[in-house]
Amino acid sequence: MTVVEPRLTLERRLLKEHPIVIACDEVGRGALAGPVAVGAAVVDPALSRKRVPAGLRDSKLVPEPKRPAVAARAASWVTASAVGWASAAEIDDVGIMRALGLATIRALADLRAHGVVPEEAIVILDGNHDYITPAGARGLRVRPVIKADRDCASAAAASVIAKVARDALMTHLHDEAPDYGWARNKGYASADHRDAIDRMGLTRHHRASWSIGPTPTLF
Fold first, then answer.
1. Mean of pLDDT over the chain
2. Cα R_g (the chain), whole angstroms
3. Among 109, 110, 145, residue whose Cα is nearest residue 124
4. Which of 35, 59, 165, 170 could form a disulfide with 160 if both were Cys (CB 3.0 to 4.6 A apart)?
5. Per-residue pLDDT, 206
6. Cα gap 51→29, rounded to integer Å
7. Any idea which architecture 9-200 has in CATH?
8. What's its EC (predicted)?
9. Measured between alpha carbons, how far is 58 from 69 in angstroms, rounded to an integer?
10. pLDDT digit string (tens) for 154-198?
11. 58 among annotated binding-site residues
């Protein structure tokens, strides 16, 4: 299979009309336990002329042992970056799509605290659906882009930064409930995770509103 290397083609085109580009991508959407995380990465005109870091890909295409180094290079390369979160309890309360929007709004708020003005940006959102605006965001220009995390270097950076942050959190939570194997499965529907749920039930970190049964939840 040919691996597509992400580029800055779309970002450079958008920067002709907007002062900055913010790319956002989520991780943890299909997990059974743990929060959802949304990474946000900023590209400005100066960055758009720089070379994309070696090895940068959508986080799903980066082998796990290499992800921390790739995420570190991505974070030092982009103009600014942030990760926003929505907890399992919030997912249960408002649903996964609204939770994704809340996590994105929190990532953008973190960027704002570091001097980025999201309202000046065009926001590239990986996927085909704007889940940010329905969650309460105002004044944002959101552009959903299918396979942005594969094709756009900014979205790939957001993806791997968020993935490494969420994996680190799930590894930390493993110590709280080691029988669920979160250091290995990161809260996803692995066989050992499902077996532990069958034996011991759900923790406060599980998405209790979901149908967590023998058949994997697909998102």
1. 94
2. 17
3. 145
4. 59
5. 97
6. 30
7. 2-Layer Sandwich (3.30)
8. 3.1.26.4
9. 14
10. 999 999 999 999 999 999 999 999 999 999 999 999 999 999 999
11. no
List 80's β-bridge partners, or say none. Answer: 42
pTM: 0.94
- Domain layout of the chain by residue ranges: 9-200
Helix (H) or strand (E) holding 88: helix 88-94
Collapse the DSSP code of 81 into the 3-class scheme (helix H, G, I; strand E, B; otherwise coil) and give the result.
strand
* HEC string for 110-168: HHHHCCCCHHHEEEEEECCCCCCHHHCCCCCEEEEECCHHHHEHHHHHHHHHHHHHHHH
| Contact status, residue 70 vs residue 49, Cβ threshold 8 Å | no
Please tell me the distance from the alpha carbon of residue 25 to that of residue 12, in angstroms, as a whole number: 19
pLDDT of 147 higher than 90: yes
195 belongs to an annotated ligand binding site: no
**End-to-end alpha carbon distance in the chain:** 24
Amino acid residing at 32? L
80: three-class secondary structure by DSSP: strand
- Residue 130 annotated as lining a ligand binding site: no
